[in-house]
Amino acid sequence: MNNPFSRLKHFIPDENDPQENHATECLAACLVFSSRLRREFIDFLFNGKEKVEVGDESKVEVETQRPIEQGGYIDLVLESPEKFTVAVEVN
Description:
Elements: H1 18-33, H2 35-45, E1 61-67, E2 73-80, E3 84-88
Helix pairs in contact: 1-2
């Protein structure tokens, strides 16, 4: 797992608000360090309507600024191998 604090001061220079990037990095760090918060956040993203099978909590990957083929970046990605991939884009 990546060090969640290593990116806090290394933002991609573009037209985005650096405060948004900082907030996203802080959220990612919290999701890495707290399995309870990670579980609650995943439930929130799925509106709590269905219980998402996460599997081994420690294998949920949390990544920020993931590049996409079309150009640009996804703000936050949560991924559990063979279970789900969630992309979060802040507008």
